[in-house]
C-alpha cells in the first residue's frame, strides 16, 4: 500500500514539472514587462505626469475619490507585481524539487547524463524564477512608495481646499 502511494505521488509530482516551467517562463517575461512599464512610468513622473491616483482623483470631479476608493485603486495597481514577486520563488522551488527525484535516481543507477540533465532543468528554473521575483519585488516596492506619495499629495490638497 505504501509503495503504491509513493509511486502515485511521484507520478503526480512529475506531471507538474511542465506547467511549473511554463508558469516560470511566463512570469519571467511578465517581470520584464513590469520593468518596462516601470521605466516608462518613471520617465513620465519626471515630466510631471505618471501619477495614476492623482489623475483618477481629478477625473472623479470636484469631490474626487474617497480614501477607500484611492486605497482600492492603489491595491489594484500593485496586485500583479506583488503576487508575482511572491509566487515566482515558490514555483522556482517546485521546479527545483521535481527534477531532484529523477536526478537522485539517475545518480544511484550511475547514469550521470540523467543527473546532469535533471539538475540543469532544476537550477535553470530556479535562477529564472529568482530573477523574475527580484525584478517584480523591486518594482512593487518603489511603486508602493510612489502611490503612498500620491495619496499624501491628495490628502494635502484636500486639507488645503478645506482651509
* Percentage of residues in DSSP E strands: under 5%
Helix/strand order:
HHHHH
How many helical elements?
5
List how many beta strands DSSP finds: 0
Unreliable stretches:
none
Overview of this structure, please?
The chain has helices at 2-15, 17-46, 52-59, 67-109, 112-162. Helix 2 packs parallel to helix 5. The model has no long low-confidence stretch (mean pLDDT 93). The chain starts with a helix and ends with a helix. With 163 residues, the protein is an all-alpha fold. The chain has 5 helices and no strands.
Q: Secondary-structure map with pairings?
A:
Layout (H helix, E strand, L loop, with lengths): L1 H14 L1 H30 L5 H8 L7 H43 L2 H51 L1
Amino acid at each position: 500500500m505504501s509503495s503504491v502511494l509513493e509511486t502515485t505521488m511521484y507520478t503526480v509530482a512529475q506531471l507538474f514539472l511542465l506547467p511549473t516551467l511554463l508558469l516560470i517562463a511566463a512570469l519571467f517575461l511578465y517581470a520584464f514587462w513590469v520593468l518596462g512599464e516601470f521605466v516608462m512610468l518613471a520617465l513620465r513622473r519626471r515630466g510631471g505626469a505618471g501619477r495614476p491616483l492623482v489623475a483618477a482623483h481629478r477625473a472623479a470631479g470636484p469631490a474626487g475619490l474617497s480614501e477607500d476608493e484611492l486605497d482600492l485603486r492603489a491595491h489594484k495597481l500593485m496586485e500583479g507585481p506583488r503576487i508575482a514577486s511572491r509566487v515566482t520563488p515558490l514555483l522556482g522551488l517546485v521546479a527545483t524539487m521535481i527534477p531532484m527525484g529523477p536526478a537522485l535516481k539517475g545518480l544511484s543507477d550511475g547514469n550521470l547524463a540523467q543527473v546532469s540533465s535533471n539538475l540543469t532543468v532544476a537550477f535553470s528554473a530556479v535562477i529564472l524564477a529568482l530573477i523574475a521575483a527580484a525584478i517584480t519585488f523591486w518594482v512593487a516596492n518603489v511603486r508602493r512608495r510612489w502611490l503612498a506619495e500620491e495619496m499624501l499629495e491628495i490628502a494635502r490638497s484636500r486639507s488645503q481646499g478645506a482651509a
